[in-house]
Amino acid sequence: MSAPGGGVGTGTRASGLAAGVAAYAAWGMFPLFFGLLASAGAVEVLAHRMLWTLVAMLGVAALTGRLSRLRGLSVRTTAMVVAAAVSISINWGVYIYGVTSGQVVESALGYFVNPLVAVVLGLVVLRERITRWQAVAVALGAAAVVVLTVDYGRPPWIALILAVSFGIYGLVKKTIPLDPVTSLTAEGIVTAPFAIGYLVWLAVVGQSTFASDGPGHAALLVASGVVTAVPLLLFGFAAQRLPLVTLGIIQYLNPAMQMTWGVVLLHEDMPGSRWIGFGLIWLALLVFTVDAVRRVRRSRRGALAPVG
Fold it and tell me: What are the phi and psi torsion angles at 180 (to 5°)?
């Protein structure tokens, strides 16, 4: 229900905020869930995640009457679905590898960096203009990557691939002419043949863990579909009800939880130089967020200013 004057009602914003926090908190718990599947290997987990997410989304699409929207997609829309499917598959696969190989902190870094990558993609691909403070934030982010490259002795590939792949996914999702449920279901249809083919091959050569590691393990692999789909649907619900600035601020809950998991519970190594790199990222995000909030406030004051 809208508030008087066409704004978003308080109740609607509250429900959107609850959904957004729930989505990012669920993503923040992913290291716990996917860490339980380490015995399967990253590629097998990815294949199961693709398959069971499609099953879950087909159920949601059927319940919401969206299955018919999957027919007759244009060539352009189909190409966008394929691009989204490829980018999110890379993101999922690298993330699962990062978690199951004990590199949760670097995986969390990818989602801290993601907002800055989104700005760069908007500049390069969409020819969007960036503000001076956005440019400062991106420069700080680049400096952080340099510091972390020196610290790790290599570029932080897991973080960079996660940030760029999710940035590309967000770019496609921003312009694709499909609602979130239809789009995610269509992406699953694209990836399902590859996932099923790989799982069948694993079973044939006797390397599948689905049946060999017990019913609990099999149940967790099946549950990966619901675990993936629910936060995405909550996020879609929140995105329709919250200002982008609010959504942008609460997104940091996800990597903050993941980093806490890696440092506090898994005791991953965090030398001083690595903290400096993360500190530069957090400073960049602070500059980026404050600039976004100030621009929204200026825009609102301009909209409320008397005309004439």
Answer: -55, -40
